[in-house]
């Protein structure tokens, strides 16, 4: 496959070099190798034939127009922090990295709108709008190094979602370069607007398969007031589940409602000596408004919480949340890890964790579960040995069993990480044949040569 | 055009009659005439050749499959309360009314999800979920008689949007019958989910041009606490504008933030003798949390409010809001009316009202403005004489001037009513040539014969 495309790529790279400023088209193998994959595990990837690093929309358009003319696949890349392999490269493709387009173009305080380029680091945007007393809620785990463009491409989530929603809920409009190089503007700057189809939402979460986003207009919200942080430990998993359903069902809208299962708690204890103890089956971490603290405490206690601690001090709150932040680092110490991302109805969160405990027990594997209990979005993390083929196979089997369990419980194969190469085989199980047909029809309409992320979620 | 299609229609109606239960296919001219148009003014319409009233998804599928086979256009219709002519019929088409599919199929209290058929009246759904302590926020002006299906097709808004967002923000998934009769399921029941393209949002607001929605899965929120209601009057329009920008800019998120201009206030005074007086240039109506009352009052006063009254009593609050509810009825008494719907950045609300005052003065016409100041979505209402062709022409010219002013101020041609027949000529001015091309490509992919609402927003 790679060989068959070599001529096209050589001609394409030559055309790109002559059309673009020096330093835009990179073929140094040491550099291209570093653009081979995102942070997913067990996904295929090859170094790309070239890396393109445009500085503006016109250059992105030139890249796509020439790639289209030469029939060369293009893989869009933000920070490479994705977890589904959507940004993984192939040898017959070029990677287009947006990291040079990293300007915050405008912050409109009165209308609460920010206009940004895709390469802006999410944490940088959050800091920039905070100086204006505003808040950009989406906070994926990679917030410190992921980009807005990648967040938009995957419709990224995070811990704030339980109150504020996901990335797509904050995208008012965008500029997108289509597969043939045409520049499309979608959406608007106003809060409301129904002129035409919601193309903005069609591109959000499309994982680079329909076009490349070159500018995003984002809705901001007022900075939230001070939060209260609670930690509750449970000796029975089902008790934690009752607390989650109780809090959500009571109409409390927490700013954060996270869960750690037994395996994760033990790993965190081993790493940071937090003294949770061996009897803890689950930990809940909650941020909420001061007015809701009493109710959250009562609901946790009546569900059977063993210990509950809370604070309205920001520094102490951050310390309580340390257990959540250390979840993945703690599990990483146990071996190689395969991080899953499924979402189920909130009422099924502990059913899913129980199912995963069964899967782990039957396979004789370690699987830690943590995640966003308040919206049913969990991250089961399978520990395995990447050097042992049978361990890799067992990890994949466990991963598949978890995804199947999520679907069985009325959930989805991915809550926020995306499909990419990792779960493209699962997509039709969730969407069904008509859904797949419509997906392919939309893809074929916007990218008839199938050049944008061709090995991604809608690979042929 | 109508004549050329007659044979196709006769054959199609015969095929529909033989495939569907008695009472589903109606050709009685007295009945079909009542399905000619929605509540828009100055839009074309003809009685349809037949009205189809299916009872379930399978029957909707049969309708579309047979219409597709015979090449007959199909116009979907909810309650006919639309204001853009999207549900207006043509003589060569059949109207498919969803009003018999009006069941609330499920209310899941813990996961805060409702599953409904499209014909459910929006107010009925709101009442049904209220008994479970839950809230379905979207509240278009027609809430008492419009349907969820119509709300989804137009992405309807209302007064709650300033805090909660629009209909699309509450649609988790749907069942849609495609132009050829295939049944597509989109989205999911979970709060988060990124498996594949966001087809749900593609169909929301597509005004019956891409498919017919036969089931909707809706997100619900906890019932809100008691609200405080304020009314503030201003002797200068610009003062009201400063109050709006001040309230929004201060980070207050009101449950409602409505404005009435001088013309509307006078009309309301004439109808209901509310004694606003001749000096009032604008009225703001605000609902907010009790904790925000003091700040809203101060911001209104410092912006120059002449009078401010507030109450935490629900009955008194409803009385204060009476002026808003009477806005359109009061303007209707002045003559025939052409209701516009544009949206601008919040900071431009009073610039738009001032521009409209100029348009009215120059044309010697009466134009009342009221609407959702908190999200910049206004409803300028042009008063004219429908029996006088020159008055009709002047009304159309004023309407066009208003829409152009909204675009000039960074806004959109429609905030919540939709494009339909009324504004299809404006769509390309907002979307541009690439935007129109992509819209047509998506339309052609899903409806290659152009049979669904062919005279709607994307008429050929």
UniProtKB/TrEMBL annotation, chains A, B:
Pfam family of the protein (one): FAD-oxidase_C
Cofactor(s) required for function per UniProt: FAD
Keyword check for Flavoprotein: yes
Gene3D superfamilies named among the record's database cross-references: 3.30.465.10, 3.30.70.2740, Vanillyl-alcohol Oxidase, Chain A, domain 4 (1.10.45.10)
Annotated transmembrane regions: none
Keywords recorded for this protein, A-Z: FAD, Flavoprotein, Oxidoreductase
Entry's Gene Ontology molecular function annotations: FAD binding; oxidoreductase activity
Domain FAD-binding PCMH-type: 43-223
Keyword Cytoplasm: no
Family of the protein in this entry: Belongs to the FAD-binding oxidoreductase/transferase type 4 family.
PANTHER family: GLYCOLATE OXIDASE SUBUNIT GLCD
Protein name: Glycolate oxidase
Species name: Mycolicibacterium murale
